[in-house]
Structures are given as structure tokens and as C-alpha cells.
Amino acid sequence: MSIKKLLVLPGDGIGPEVMREVARVAAWLSRRRDITFDISEDLVGGASLAEYGVPIREEVIQKAREADAVLFGSVGDPKWAHVGFDKRPEVAILKLRQELGLFANLRPAKVFDALADASTLKPEIVRGLDIMIVRETVGGIYFGEPRGIETLRDGERRGINTEVYTTREIERVARVAFDLARKRQNSVCSVEKCNVMESGLLWKEVVTDLHAREYADVTLSHMLADNCAMQLVRNPRQFDVIVTGNLFGDILSDLASMLTGSLGMLPSATLGAVHSDGRRPALYEPIHGSAPDIAGRGIANPIAQILSFGMLLRYSFGMQTEADMIESAVSAVLATGLRTADIMSEGMARVGTDVMGEAIVREL
Amino acid sequence: MSIKKLLVLPGDGIGPEVMREVARVAAWLSRRRDITFDISEDLVGGASLAEYGVPIREEVIQKAREADAVLFGSVGDPKWAHVGFDKRPEVAILKLRQELGLFANLRPAKVFDALADASTLKPEIVRGLDIMIVRETVGGIYFGEPRGIETLRDGERRGINTEVYTTREIERVARVAFDLARKRQNSVCSVEKCNVMESGLLWKEVVTDLHAREYADVTLSHMLADNCAMQLVRNPRQFDVIVTGNLFGDILSDLASMLTGSLGMLPSATLGAVHSDGRRPALYEPIHGSAPDIAGRGIANPIAQILSFGMLLRYSFGMQTEADMIESAVSAVLATGLRTADIMSEGMARVGTDVMGEAIVREL
Ligand SMILES: CC(C)[C@H](C(=O)O)[C@@H](O)C(=O)O
Ligand SMILES: CC(C)[C@H](C(=O)O)[C@@H](O)C(=O)O
């Protein structure tokens, strides 16, 4: 009987609601399968600001370090819009990524058969779409120094941020992408802006070298970030794995998710390096945000959070069977016609968060 | 009779081919209307590299300064991919923007009625789409210092670029956006990434202040760049004018153009500040690139280049009537069913570059 330490951080908005549905799935697994989750829960984001005056406590980061995996909800609340740059709810996720060294964000953009028509793109363009974006998440312009706002002599001001990427940072995230590609369609597209940025030039060179040295069996292509945004709209199925930096990844992965027409369905994983004791820090979160506009109304789609838990089982605990079971249960429920408001379409049955969660557990 | 000095820079790939069709339109205008174009032509990009070993000569920049307007084709050629960062063809356009102070790139993303079905998006999502993206083009991470690749002690390397925006740079481009909005749907969406970048924080603050001081009659909203990419796919018609920095603008404007499904149709203008003598430096170019794969085959779509010339007449020479004539002629030709390969669809008549150009002149 294995015991797994899980830190659950529901965060703001719909976070706590959708997390409750994960609890059902976890409880079911504990009952039926040989596994016990030692779950501890804590506050982050606006919820933590309200209680402790900071978006995340040192103590929570320490707990995250000690956990076998972190399941994250979402942070962000308009109430805290004017709280100052260092105290904004988003700091919670940014700090977790950096303090735990979670450098590789895996974001699948997948079209579920039952929902091919939910996209704003024509069904013949997106049917069967299955892209995996690997985004670097502890480097680049998000964290580079110098940064800040300075006042110049004449009262004018200057905002500064620095994009920095080192050989080592590029190589380790590219490795994750190549390894994933080998289990998929064996093709990686590396995205930068090497025609205007030297950091992009280095990015391209390092990926090219690593490929030649260790991954020559994988098909590698290179694309400029602006072109990639276009190609994702023109013909998204040309992509298998995309690997890119923090800022481009932020934009392109959100774009790719929206192509599927069902943002409320998409999970993500963010992985760190494997430590000497074999443990690998990892955080799982839905791609959607805290959706304050629908929070507390019991209508949020819990599927992305449940599938994030599925990714957690797959990547952190090696529980392929259980992860597959969850994915199949989600597909089965969709096939019966149940829909939350965000994916509702004609002829389907509209249900709330809890009915959707229950239905998924029933299909397990 | 007015004489206008025009510098024509066809550049690489399909640039020279589509520029020939503009020459027809200009010739027609000279014959029929009270205007003479004093046209001088020169090499840029790969074409200039081949002839002079540099992507653009100082002399050409000087000519551009003295011209009433610059009509640019496109630069970029895989042949010059390994020529080194300072000599790449793209330097031609980057230098022109910076040396002439062309800080505001106006990029319309417009769906032509006759081509609503050319988009990969569903027609009901894009029909009537008409967005104007105003992109800052002489600042931000494209030009900020320090930049470069440095070697660290242990042989590791580091690529660095710096995003910098000053109050003054933000204000002047926001002004262009607000002024344009007043002539359109009176709404501006300002896009940055203020939740992770201080330069974005300053951007948002400066735009907000300027709005309160001078443009309170215009509707202003703010959006994060990742969300903007999503919203452009989810519901692009929510936007009127979008104003953003150099890097986000590069990606989002390409994305927006691709939504229309007819990249080969879209022109752009890049404007500088009005000088004390009343002159305003300006450069016009199609949104599409040099398309080396189809260059020299006579099948490129000349419409974006012709419409860029139309924008030139409108913005640099105040020739609204003539600009309208060109736009109407393009619509009329599309209505007759003529199509170049890139916008071809069933039941239409496929024609080459020159037949399309001639047809447009005939409709003038
Ligand atoms: C919340 C925010 C800081 C974050 C980011 O920009 O990385 C989010 O957009 C994401 O993609 O996870
Ligand atoms: C050619 C290149 C340097 C340029 C840019 O990135 O600005 C192009 O993509 C554009 O959008 O005009």
C-alpha cells in the first residue's frame, strides 16, 4: 500500500469548487485501488492575501517542496488588482515555479471528439488536434534582472525587463520536449524570434546542437514566434510537440488551447529536475484561470482540474492505468451528452459542477 | 499639379513581382489624376546583400529620409540564413524603422466579404471582422540594450535581450491608437503583460493616464497578451483598435491577419512623428513576407502591395478619394470571381499576379 503526499492549493475564484470534484475522484481511487493520498490543503493567491496579507507563505512553499506532488487550482482576483506588483495573487504560482525549479510546463491542446464543434475554427481544421506545448517556466523575461521602473532626470520613467536564457536552461527544457516527442509523433518544433533577439539565436543553436548530438531520430523544425501564431491558426495539426521560452510559451499555449474550443477541459503539468534521491518536483494545474465572473455559482467545468489530477497520477506516480481510467471516464461522460455551461451545445444536457464530477466518478 | 517623391524598395522573393502591379496602378493615377510620382527604386534585404554585401546601404536610408513616403516590399531569403546576426536581410526593415523613427505600425485585419469563407475560423465568427492593430515599432525588446550572447566562466553561454519602454514612447503610440479609434468604433484595447513585467505595468499606467487626460471619450480596456491571443480566436469582433508593444504586436498582428484567411490581402503602414516642417516619415508594406517558395512563378497575390500603396495615398498624401478608389477596385475584382492561388476557392477563376493587377487597374 503506497502513501502519496499531495499538497492541494485551490486558490481563487472557481479553484475551490472544481477542486472539490477532484476530491471525489481521489476518494474513489483510495477506496478501489491500492493507494492512499495524504492530502494537505492550503491557501494561495487572493485567498492567502485575505488571510495572511501575502500571496503565498514561505511555509506553503516548504510544504510544496516536501510533497510528492502539488495540485494547484488557479489564482487571480480583480479585488487584488491594486495591491502592488510584489503582492499580486500571481506571485503564488510564479514563486512556486521558481522555488521548486519547475522549469518545464507541459500544456496539451487536444480536441475531444465529442467537442470538435466547440471550436471557433472549422471542424475540419481542428478535428483530432493533439499538440503538446513545452514551455520553459523559470527563466526568460519573467525572472531576468535588471527589472523595474526607474525615474529619469526629467520626470520621465522607464520600465525595464530582461530576457535571459543560458545554454543549460535551454538544453534541459529541450530535452523534455524531445523525450516527449519520442512517445508521440516524434516531431519537435522549436520556437523563438532569432531574427530580432540574440537570446532566440542562442535558443535555436542550442536546440539544434542537442538534437544533432542526442536526438537525431526526432524530426526537428524551427519557427519564428510570429509565424507560429499564424500557423497555429492556419493549420494547427502540423504540430506535434512545440518547445519555446516562457513568454512565447505563455501566449502560444493559450492560443493553442483556445483552438480546441474547450479551455475548461485542458490540464497542465509543470515539472522540475529529477533530484538525486529520485524525486521530481511537479505541479499540476488547469489551463483556465480563476474565472471570478462565474465563481460560487456551481457552474464551472471541473474537467480540467480532474484531468490535471490525472496527469499527476501519470507523471508523478507512474499510475498509467489510473490516469487512463480518468481520461476514459471523461470521454464516456461527454459521450452521454452531459455538458457544463462552457461547453454546452444544442441537444446536450446542461449540468453543474457537482453533477459533472459525480458522473465522472460513476464512469470510473 | 503635385509631385510626390516615392522610394520603392521591392526587396526579396515575391517583392519585385507584386511591386510591378503597383507600378501599373501608379501609372494609371498619374495619367488620370492630377499627380506625378517621382519614383526612385533601390535594393534592400537579400537583394542588397547580393549586390553590396549589406542588407541596406546608408545611402538608401538617406533616400528614405528625403522621400515623401517609402513603399516597401518584403525582405528575407533562406539563402542568407547563415549570414550572421548583423547582416541578415531583416536588418533592412529594422533599420528603416529606427532611423526614420517609424514608431507606429498600423496593421488592419479585415475580412473581405467575398472571402469570409477563406478563414480557418467559422464564417459566423469572422464575418465583418475589422480590427486595427497599432504596434510600437522602434522600442521594446527589439532594440533595448544590453543585448547579445556572452560566454560565462565554465564555457556556458547566455543570450540577453532587454525590453525597455519609456513614458514618452508609450504615450506617443497610444495617442496614434486613440486618434484612430475616434475615426472608427471609438474603442481601444491596450495589451501588455503587467502581471509579470514592470515594463507592462508602466505601459498600462501611461495609457490609463493619457486616456483620462485627453481621450476620456474613447472606450479603453486593458488585456494581458496571453488572454488577447485567446480572445482573438474566441471572439475577434470584440476588438476595434488594439495598441501594444513591439514584440506582442509582432505576434498578435500576425495572428489577427491569419484570422482573416487572406494574408495576401493585407497592407500596413508605419508612421513616424510629424516633423516641424509638417512632413511625416512613413513606410508602407504588405503584411505577408517574401514567400521564397513561390517567388518568380507569377502566382503571388499583388493585392496587399496594392492596398499598401492605397494606404500610402491615404495617410501620406491625404488622397482619400484615390485610396477609396483602389479599395473599391479590389472589392469589385474579387466580386467578379478572380482569385490568385492563395485565396482560390471552388467556382472561382484562378489567375496570376499580372492578370490580377490588370483587372484592378481596369476597375479603377
Ligand atoms: C498567472 C500568470 C502569472 C501565468 C503566466 O503568465 O505564466 C499564467 O498566465 C500561466 O500561463 O500560467
Ligand atoms: C522581418 C521581421 C524583423 C519583422 C518583425 O519582427 O518586426 C516582421 O516579422 C514584421 O512583423 O514586420
From TrEMBL, chains A, B:
Q: What is its EC number?
A: 1.1.1.85
Subcellular localization is given as: Cytoplasm
Query: Required cofactors, per record?
Result: Mn(2+); Mg(2+)
Major localization listed first in the record, in broad terms: cytoplasm
Kindly list the GO molecular function terms attached to this UniProt entry: 3-isopropylmalate dehydrogenase activity; magnesium ion binding; NAD binding
Using the record's annotation, list all stretches that form the Isopropylmalate dehydrogenase-like domain. 5-360
Q: Binding residues for substrate, per the UniProt record?
A: R97, R107, R135, D226
Pathway(s) where this gene product acts: Amino-acid biosynthesis; L-leucine biosynthesis; L-leucine from 3-methyl-2-oxobutanoate: step 3/4
Q: Please give the SUPFAM superfamilies that the UniProt record associates with this protein.
A: Isocitrate/Isopropylmalate dehydrogenase-like (SSF53659)
- Reactions this protein catalyses: (2R,3S)-3-isopropylmalate + NAD(+) = 4-methyl-2-oxopentanoate + CO2 + NADH
**A GO CC term?**
cytosol
- Judging by the UniProt lineage, the source's domain of life is Bacteria
Gene3D superfamilies cross-referenced by the UniProt entry: Isopropylmalate Dehydrogenase (3.40.718.10)
Gene Ontology BP annotations: L-leucine biosynthetic process
> Which SMART domains does the record cross-reference, listed alphabetically?
Iso_dh (SM01329)
> Which Pfam families does the protein's record reference?
Iso_dh
Question: Which positions does UniProt annotate for Mg(2+) binding?
Answer: D226, D250, D254
What does the Swiss-Prot or TrEMBL cofactor note state?
Answer: Binds 1 Mg(2+) or Mn(2+) ion per subunit.
Annotated binding of NAD(+), by residue: G289, S290, A291, P292, D293, I294, A295, G296, R297, G298, I299, A300, N301
**UniProt keywords, alphabetically:** Amino-acid biosynthesis, Branched-chain amino acid biosynthesis, Cytoplasm, Leucine biosynthesis, Magnesium, Manganese, Metal-binding, NAD, Oxidoreductase
Question: Residue numbers for the site described as Important for catalysis?
Answer: Y142, K193
Return the similarity comment.
Belongs to the isocitrate and isopropylmalate dehydrogenases family. LeuB type 1 subfamily.
Q: How does it assemble?
A: Homodimer.
According to its UniProt entry, the function of this protein is described as: Catalyzes the oxidation of 3-carboxy-2-hydroxy-4-methylpentanoate (3-isopropylmalate) to 3-carboxy-4-methyl-2-oxopentanoate. The product decarboxylates to 4-methyl-2 oxopentanoate.
What is the designated name of this protein? Answer: 3-isopropylmalate dehydrogenase
> Mind giving the lineage of the organism this protein is from?
Bacteria, Pseudomonadati, Pseudomonadota, Alphaproteobacteria, Acetobacterales
